Automatic annotation (TrEMBL):
Pfam families: RrnaAD. This is Ribosomal RNA small subunit methyltransferase A. It comes from Tepidimonas sediminis. It is found in: Cytoplasm. It catalyses: adenosine(1518)/adenosine(1519) in 16S rRNA + 4 S-adenosyl-L-methionine = N(6)-dimethyladenosine(1518)/N(6)-dimethyladenosine(1519) in 16S rRNA + 4 S-adenosyl-L-homocysteine + 4 H(+). It comes from the Bacteria. The gene is rsmA.
Length: 266
């Protein structure tokens, strides 16, 4: 295994940024084919790094916006024609402004997300899902497994519910550590996320609080966890609490959140 400080194209990978640069041409080609960008698409790439995906994407697009935290990498990217470079922490970026600039087209998001903050990034992007056409992200495979997990499986949890309420998702590619420089200590995968055109209306913060309560002690029956949370809120409606959190489908969590918010009868 190469050392964590391995260099590629003269740049030393920085551990604090969780940098692992995609370097396998076959994997790069497979990701670009999965995204299938067309000229005129409004594509935003998160974490372009050394541009492994950036260049083949640009070959199909007239323009590409990239978000890069590393100041040195951002400077290198600015020298490339056709790029708008935002040197920023992705968690501070207002993607609504980027969507406004692309209107009436919707954003297409791609990227090799930093594994140490991938979940916060996914939750950050949720608020602009209605402005997005699709998202293709490289993530730790374990995270992708949780995103697409079905009920009654060990991987099914809070992330599954929160994202499946808003997106149709599928794992489109599995990627071994050897495809990166330096190689991470985990397997990776690419997930495709397509926002539902008409998601169930609800308060995402309420759904998140509800699901967090449900999965707080996933080995216990819901009457010990979600039941107490519902009781504290004065909810006396009908909901089967003689199950574990992982046995409840996404649609039932969503319906419960709607009832709590008064969007449907209790």
């Amino acid at each position: 295994m190469r050392p964590a400080a391995a260099t590629l194209d003269g740049h030393r990978a920085r551990k604090r940024f969780g940098q692992h640069f995609l370097s396998d041409p076959a994997v790069i080609d497979a990701i670009v084919r999965a995204v299938d960008p067309e000229a005129g698409d409004c594509v935003v790439e998160i974490g372009p790094g050394l541009g492994a995906l950036t260049q083949p994407l640009l070959e199909r697009l007239r323009h590409l916006t990239v978000v890069e935290l590393d100041r040195d990498l951002a400077a290198r990217l600015r020298a490339q024609p056709g790029l708008t470079v935002l040197q920023a922490d992705v968690l501070t970026v207002d993607f609504g402004q980027l969507a406004d600039a692309c209107a009436p087209r919707r954003l297409r998001m791609v990227g090799n997300l930093p594994y140490n903050i991938s979940t916060p990034i996914l939750f950050h992007l949720l608020r602009w899902a209605d402005r997005v056409q699709d998202q293709h992200f490289m993530l730790q495979k374990e995270v992708v497994d949780r995103m697409v997990a079905a009920p009654c499986s060990a991987a099914y949890g809070r992330l599954s519910v929160m994202l499946q309420w808003r997106y149709a998702m599928e794992c489109v590619l599995e990627v071994p550590p050897q495809a990166f420089t330096p190689p991470p200590r985990v397997d990776s995968a690419v997930v495709r996320m397509e926002p539902w055109p008409q998601p169930a209306p609800l308060d995402p913060a309420l759904l998140e609080e509800l699901v967090q309560a449900a999965f707080a002690q996933r080995r216990k029956l819901l009457r010990h966890t979600l039941g107490r949370w519902l009781q504290a809120r004065g909810f006396d409606g009908d909901f089967d609490l003689q199950r574990r959190a992982e046995e409840v489908p996404v649609a039932e969590y969503v319906a419960l959140a709607q009832r709590l918010a008064g969007l449907t009868p209790a």
